[in-house]
Amino acid sequence: MSEEVASSRTKNEAWEWLKALGIAVFLAFVIRTFLFAPFIVDGDSMQYTLHNQEKLVVNKAIYYLSEPKRGDIVVFHAEARRDYIKRVIAVAGDTVEVKNDQLLINGKAVEEPYLEEKRKEAEEMGIPLTDDFGPIHIGEGQIFVMGDNRQDSHDSRAIGPVDLDQVVGRAEFVFWPLSGIRITR
């Protein structure tokens, strides 16, 4: 094999590697920007559903096709440099309130099985899990969110309803730590 053929083959192989790397970087950018993103839970506001420092995948594309639903766990822009993760409690047109530690949506009691452990803890301490509030009407283009750890959550009770354009996406599954891999529903 001549030196010229070997040099041409090396250049072609380098070009192919550069193209593959460029495509990979482009695909990673598109996926991260429009489809999925990692998120690290910061704090205990979603305890026991999610735990501090767990890493999860957020589906950013889901809300291009539909709006958040009651029960979805969403990530949203809460502050200029900080995103929050909370559960959707009420959607546009709903009226939400808590009376005697019971969540009411449009005047009807709502079961919250994801609060079972926290509710037991609150009962043992002789305090309500969720203090009374409301009624609050949720406007068009908004959602009302609360953390599952109601006694330690800075959520719509303090910051008000969240505009839909602030929602990043829906939490899909925990991927770290490996021993805690699970779907986040």
UniProtKB/TrEMBL annotation:
Membrane-topology annotation of the record: Single-pass type II membrane protein
GO MF terms, alphabetically ordered: serine-type endopeptidase activity; signal peptidase activity
Keyword field: Cell membrane, Hydrolase, Membrane, Protease, Transmembrane, Transmembrane helix
CDD domains: S26_SPase_I (cd06530)
Chain ranges passing through the membrane: 20-41
Enzyme Commission code(s) on record: 3.4.21.89
Primary location class: membrane
The keyword Flavoprotein is annotated on this UniProt entry: no
Compartment(s): Cell membrane; Membrane
InterPro entries in alphabetical order: LexA/Signal_pep-like_sf, Pept_S26A_signal_pept_1, Pept_S26A_signal_pept_1_CS, Peptidase_S26
Domain of life: Bacteria
Coiled-coil portions: none
Domain Peptidase S26: 15-176
GO cellular component: plasma membrane
Name this polypeptide is given: Signal peptidase I
The gene coding this protein: lepB
